[in-house]
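Sequence only, no structure available. Ideas?
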Amino acid sequence: MISYLIRKFFYGSAVMLGIVVVVFFLFNILPVDPARMTQGQRADVQSLQTVRKEFGLDKPLPVQFAYYMNDLSAIGIHLNTRAEQQRYHYVKIFAVSQYRVVALKWPYLRRSYQTSKDVVSLLLEVVPNTLILATTAMLFAILIGVFLGIISAVHKDTG
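Reply:
I predicted one. Tokens follow.
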């Protein structure tokens, strides 16, 4: 039983990792420039470079992916500074060096390119409506399913 659970955990982890990799590279392969999205079509070169530096878009793709994975994971390597601790809200597990620590943290989803708001706050705004929609859909499916199941059972052998 334990080996079954461990195997399922690793399969689930592999699927999640695959989804994260596909989403990251899909959004980086698309011909859309996030800096241009935030600044508009008439932005000057200096402001575009500032936005690219702020979001880390000026770094090579493997470095961006490493930062992305570090931000999404529950355990990550971070600088041992007060600003970094407030940004990521982490609990230090152990020190790797004088300046870096391995920490347990909540995933950091950064800021939206379009609205410059935290992604977590954007998600929290839509969660109540999503729960209402999901609950309504499930109740509707249960009621219709039970009703059709009863009708099917009553007319079982009536070809």
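The CA atoms of residues 53 and 124 lie 27 Å apart.
Hope that gets you unstuck.
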